[in-house]
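Lecture 7 notes: from sequence to structure.

We start with a single chain of 172 residues. Read the sequence below before looking at the structure.
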Amino acid sequence: MYNPYCLLSPEILEALLQQPMYFVRQHYPRGQQHPAETSLPLLLTHYSLHESDQERSERHIRLLWKDPYRFRYDSRLSEHREKLIRAATQPEGYRIYINLMPKKWKASDGLKTKVSRYLSHKLPWWHYSPADKLHVTLKERYGELFIALLWRGQQTEVLLEEIENFSACATT
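Now the structure, written as tokens:
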């Protein structure tokens, strides 16, 4: 599985904490670098304290109701701030990511091939041809990664995991 996010560091956290924020923590399987790795991968998604982001952070934590690692930090609370500072040091046994990408995202050739196969099998009404210009962008919503596809004014979003795991053989 592809992981676009960077590890949380004290420098990144310090920059984010220049203003009060919420952080939603969740289990993050994409952060596991090797199958035998024993570190627990976690993702922090940051939200500003604006009313709309407060509602989004509350919805995000509700969507994680099955995740035993879910937690919502409020950086205005000193005990939460201290836990965030500790998390930024990457304590032993954990790999803690933040929903920030260290560089501009671009779809790899392998992913483009999978997208093409996915479109021709799952969305045949699109009449998509690999020769056509397809705009592929990565979107994040509540800790989940989506691929946004735009072609000839038509647009759709698909879970990245669905495209990564898609097998044309399984659908025929």
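The chain has two domains: 6-98, 109-171. Keep this in mind for problem set 3.
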